[in-house]
């Protein structure tokens, strides 16, 4: 996609979004934003061709990288000199003490000084190795020397891994920021969506109620309602009469229950008399049949 072209739907849109996300992190724009602002999209695309991922111009980024390499080189040189200077400072103290020994020649002193410098440097290298890899403390000097020889390369590799991890973390943070922005936009749309759904819900309830009223109106006509009213009145009248009869029976029963044992005795006596009367009536009927 050329820098002078506009962003057409589908063409170069994904590339432009990636450019905005990586090279221009503050411009976290969606496809809709880019489509609605073609001139701004053109400006961003043109600008992205002149800056790197950090936002610096390509020329300035190149100069910065070169300056950083020079700083690292000077830093390494200075550290080497500083370490050697420290070792020499320690050894010179012993040297000036031992210089009082008249039996040692100047050549012997120089050779001893060089040997002691080498020993001190080797000791410091082994100390650094054991700090990095404590298990190396039990190794022989030959193995330690081999590990020290490769230690710089190992540290450079780990430093590169750390830088790669930082780059990945930065990309993840940008992705997280993009997702957070998207989620925020979605959440802002939720109240409007909920309001619309609530209105539709109320409209649906009202429609259902109207349908219910229409069904009842179609099912129960005026004539049917009048007949049902007459039936209800008749049933209510019959229920009322039954309740009155029930109340009268309850009152009679209560009056009988007031008599107590006397009532029971009279009932038994009445039963006996009634039975005797029935027997005599039966005997009279049989006698009448026999006489006829």
From TrEMBL:
Protein's recorded name: HAUS augmin-like complex subunit 4
InterPro entries according to UniProt: HAUS4, HAUS4_met
Source superkingdom: Eukaryota
Biological process terms in GO annotation: centrosome cycle; spindle assembly
GO molecular function, one term: microtubule minus-end binding
Gene Ontology annotations for the cellular component aspect, listed alphabetically: HAUS complex
Organism encoding this protein: Rhinopithecus roxellana (Golden snub-nosed monkey)
Pfam families for the chain: HAUS4
């Amino acid at each position: 996609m050329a820098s002078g072209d506009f962003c057409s739907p589908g063409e170069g849109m994904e590339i432009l979004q990636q450019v905005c996300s990586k090279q221009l992190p503050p411009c976290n724009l969606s496809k809709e934003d880019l489509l609605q602002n073609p001139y701004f999209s053109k400006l961003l695309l043109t600008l992205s061709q002149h800056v790197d991922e950090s936002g610096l111009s390509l020329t300035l980024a190149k100069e910065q990288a070169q300056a950083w390499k020079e700083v690292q080189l000077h830093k390494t040189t200075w550290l080497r000199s500083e370490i050697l200077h420290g070792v020499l400072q320690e050894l010179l103290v012993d040297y000036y003490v031992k210089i009082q020994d008249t039996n040692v020649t100047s050549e012997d002193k120089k050779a001893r000084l060089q040997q002691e410098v080498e020993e001190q440097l080797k000791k410091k290298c082994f100390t650094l190795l054991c700090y990095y890899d404590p298990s190396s403390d039990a190794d022989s000097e030959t193995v330690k020397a081999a590990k020290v020889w490769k230690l710089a390369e190992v540290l450079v590799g780990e430093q590169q891994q750390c830088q790669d991890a930082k780059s990945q973390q930065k990309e993840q943070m940008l992705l997280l920021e993009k997702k957070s922005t998207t989620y925020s936009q979605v959440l802002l749309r939720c109240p409007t969506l909920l309001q619309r759904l609530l209105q539709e819900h109320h409209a649906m309830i009202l429609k259902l109620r109207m349908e219910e009223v229409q069904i009842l109106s179609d099912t129960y006509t005026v004539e049917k309602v009048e007949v049902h009213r007459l039936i209800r009145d008749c049933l209510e009248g019959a229920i009322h009469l039954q309740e009155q009869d029930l109340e009268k029976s309850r009152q009679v029963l209560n009056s009988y229950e007031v008599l107590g044992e006397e009532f029971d005795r009279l009932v038994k006596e009445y039963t006996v008399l009634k039975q005797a009367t029935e027997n005599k009536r039966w005997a009279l009927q049989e006698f009448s049949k026999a006489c006829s």
